[in-house]
Amino acid sequence: MYEQIVFSGFGGQGIQSMSKMLARCAMAAGLQVSWMPAYGGAMRGGTSNVTVIVSDGEIASPMPCAGEVTAAVVMNNPSLVKFESYLRPGGLLLLNRSLIDLRPVRGDVEVLAVPANEMAEELGNARATNMIMLGCLLARTGMVLPSVMEGMIGEFFAAKEKLIPLNREAFGLGVRFVKEGGGHDL
Amino acid sequence: MGKKILMKGSEAMAEAAIQAGCRLYFGYPITPQSELPEYMAARLPGVGGTFLQAESELAAINMVYGAAGTAHRVMTSSSSPGVSLMQEGISYAAAAELPLVVINVMRAGPGLGTIVPSQTDYFQATRGGGNGGYRTLILSPASVQEACDLVALAFELAERYRQPVLLLGDAMMAQMMEPVEIKEAPPKPYDIAWAARGWKPDCGRARAVINPRSKPGLEARLQEKYRRMAKEEVRVEEVDTEDAEYVIAAYGTVARIAKNAIKTLRGMGVRVGLIRPITLYPFPYEAFSRAAARETLRSFVDFEISEGQMVEDVRLGVGGQKPVAFHGWYDLELPTPQQMVDFILALRQKEGGERQ
């Protein structure tokens, strides 16, 4: 098993949190994992991105590799432009339809479009978009069991207990969205 | 700790130092390793230690020098231009034979440099950035776990040889998170009669003086120590070298990327191996000369994020037995496995393609 996942969006969309949660979850499941943030000069309004690699063998490079990314979670237009080309054929492109009006150009990847902001607003907290996307990712790839992630949410937010139910709910909403066949309207 | 936790390289190295009994940290923040002093600032007071942000790197290394003179585990960390400022202090510590640990998370290029992962301080580290022809032990990790293990080893070696030990890392390793298990590695008791630790007229031992001045016999003792280090402290990782047509030479995170390239090339039927120096000084010359002597080996390929520094040591090790090719990355570029694969395939083509 080898999954190279890129999470990308703008600052404040929870890119760091959702990628850390996946990394911790994979570690708890006994898998090898690396978490590598985008690094270097950054500008306000630009992209924030993290690469998480999950594998049952030794992880060589922690860097995102063009043509080898198995799943990209893109939360805004610049992220789609930057990372669509990194996907390997047959890879998963999970995009936040609420904020992305560009259309993917690749015909050889699976696209799931998630109205994450609308879904989060329905829950009453626009900041939960990242958990919805994470739910979609795990429901589709199965790399970590959603039940393991639900446990991890409790651990991750241990210091802010009141956020636990909201995040679990948002995560579950993402899982259900994919399981019920959502994501195919671009 | 005994349990795997997910940690950033810079913070993990700080925790590893604490688990190794380091209770004193003096430094001055600089990207890409500011998380290290930040972690120390938060953590050291709770374990009875002292964190002090110096007014400059110059001050920091001299604080380290003073503390090392009392034989307590002490360290500093910085990045390239900061480490340049520390060179005088490191040279003084080499002369005074003080055990101390310096972590350099390298920046790229001369001057202020830039913060992308880089390996442009190899010359400075291995050839002694300060005056006087001294040596520092140089350890170079390729994973967060190895960084932690080498921090513990750095303290141990610093004491065994009474001498500065440098850990050379890059921004990729400092910024990435990986699961680590940080083991306790407390100092083993050793003879510290040399240390300036509260002499009194009736304490029954000679007064200890920490002195960086050259004195009769010092040079001979240092050289004897360096020979002993060169003989006993070489550390190297070899991957798939036995049957290799090509052996990649790479250290630190570049070696990780090379492992991806090796997998791809082996999948294509090209037999490639890796020699990864873990100690840059002493350099594993023997591993290279041994590999060079193998019939199956066509040439070496040295990959670095620099314009070519370690390649000089690789050539010394190979000793003209086989060709040594070089490819470097700089100008904000980072190596990818594909570039390494392409380079080796092109080289193979040039050398006459597949061997019969």
UniProtKB/TrEMBL annotation, chain A:
It comes from the Bacteria. Coiled coil: none annotated. One of its GO terms (molecular function) is oxidoreductase activity, acting on the aldehyde or oxo group of donors. The keyword Oxidoreductase applies. Pfam families: POR. InterPro entries: 2-oxoglutarate_synth_KorC, Pyrv/ketoisovalerate_OxRed_cat, Pyrv_flavodox_OxRed_cen. Residues 11-175 form the Pyruvate/ketoisovalerate oxidoreductase catalytic domain. Keywords: Oxidoreductase. The keyword Oxidoreductase applies. PANTHER family: 2-OXOGLUTARATE SYNTHASE SUBUNIT KORC (PTHR42730). This is 2-oxoglutarate ferredoxin oxidoreductase gamma subunit. It comes from Harryflintia acetispora.
Automatic annotation (TrEMBL), chain B:
GO terms for molecular function: oxidoreductase activity. InterPro entries: 2-oxoacid_oxidoreductase, PFOR_II, Pyrv_Fd/Flavodoxin_OxRdtase_N, THDP-binding, Transketo_C/PFOR_II. The keyword Ribosomal protein does not apply. Residues 244-327 form the Pyruvate:ferredoxin oxidoreductase core domain. Coiled coil: none annotated. Residues 15-225 form the Pyruvate flavodoxin/ferredoxin oxidoreductase pyrimidine binding domain. Gene3D superfamilies: 3.40.50.920, 3.40.50.970. Keywords: Oxidoreductase. The keyword Transmembrane does not apply. This is 2-oxoglutarate ferredoxin oxidoreductase subunit alpha. The lineage of its organism: Bacteria, Bacillati, Bacillota, Clostridia, Eubacteriales.
